[in-house]
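pasting input
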Amino acid sequence: MSANFWTSSHHKQLLEQDKIDVVHPIDKERGLTLEEFKLIKIHMTNHIWKLAQQVKVRQRVIATAVTYFRRVYTRKSLTEYDPRFVAPTCLYLASKAEESTVQARLLVFYIKKMCSDEKYRCEIKDILEMEMKLLEALDYYLVVFHPYRPLLQLLHDAGMPDLTHISWGLVNDTYKMDFILIHPPFIIALACIYIASVLKDKDTTIWFEELRVDMNVVKNIAIEILDFYDFYRVEAVKGMSESSKGISEEKVNAALYKVTPKP
Amino acid sequence: MEKYDKLEKVGEGTYGKVYKAQDKVTGQLVALKKTRLEMDEEGIPPTTLREISLLQMLSQSIYVVRLLGVEHVEKNGKRLLYLVFEYLDTDLKKYVDSYKKGPNSRPLPSRLIQSFLYQLCKGVAHCHSHGVLHRDLKPQNLLVDKDKGILKVADLGLGRAFTVPLKSYTHEIVTLWYRAPEVLLGSTHYSVGVDIWSVGCIFAEMVRRQPLFAGDSELQQLLHIFRFLGTPTEAKWPGVSSLRDWHDYPQWKPQSLSQALPNLDSEGVDLLSKMLEYCPSNRISAKEALDHPYFNGLDKSQF
């Protein structure tokens, strides 16, 4: 028996792309562009990822944290909700929701160690205060479904366990975009399997046909993922670990500067 | 919190007090569950968080107590979280007690037992279909609206999504009386069956007006079960003797359920025996239970 995505709050909260690609009016007033908005989200996804590696949590927790992060900014402005505090707090919240609590002081410690930039530094009380604000922003909906489980089930069904590594990596990278807010997890998993099978030269046409899913949706996601790699010049699958060429620190800092409250 | 008038304290849970209160504007009665947040330590307790998120997900069902909202309050430097639930006037324990004591002492009407059990199975099936185990089903956690004959599952604080089974579940969970034998025997991979076992115990308790297995230690609890249902064997329950806490127990023969529960009709006895099946994987599921002939006489259109 598995959890039921279709009746979950996650399913009910799925959004259209054009509802997500909206710069909050407050951020817009400060001159933030859609490109910069996306850039900040990618950068902060990487930040959550790196922080998570320090405190050693499971993939699922990271994925949930990034989902919270992206969901928050479909509703709130970067100006009012400093992403440099929101990101670690999302990880904190996700670790609790996924039953592998990471202590706030540990996060504070590793952020200090990781980031030379003062603006990323926070204290325990910042995280705890932000926790409450985020819960309200998320409307207390914390259950998130991810593509990892369906991915393994589908690969098993397709008899292609050898694609696990590469498609798992692709799923990881989908969190640099907003797919998790838009599509059911198994569709995302299928798109990753699709790319993996093309990369590894496996013929999956028949298997996909038998699934009776809308292949247009699957292929469109696959194309978007590939476009993403192309645009940010990230090497597929290895992309998540280090900051990629298309995402320069200057660009990120310039974008973040716009939404940083001025004293 | 100015929205509500606190009327009285109605209970005290593990995480704080529960008040009966009234919405000042609409007059709606609510239950306020107060949780103190120890903000200098680790923010909102994970159990509270989990309960809120599960309830948000599950409270679309009318068989699960409805979470109406969450209120965050700061008072004298203390931070409090109030979970606002719909209010039901009693719970199944008090309700069954009301049939036990006093001049009105009499069995619960069998139609009512049927209806309550059906609603309980609905609620449990709903939790299970969302990947959530309740793990602490007991009469105190089942809220009842006396006049309308409604029963709802409450207190999901120990519930958890079972999609993340990397760690084995903690052991100190279900109140002893309703605890499934696989948990008592130290099984680390228990699942939906633990809730069904509890449902079976609650079913029998409604019929008997007293608990079926009232053990006061884990060993005693097991012995109560074995004495009644017979000591399990490898033939009946494959793998039982390799469970962590298995020992050689006295060999009891099973008693007759129908003799022990003379008030229960044969369909009821059959359903109960399927809920109290030793082998967890053979135990009836909540969804299957809903289709059991025991409920044939029930007007299901009302649910």
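fyi Confidence is low (pLDDT under 50) at residues 161-174 of chain B.
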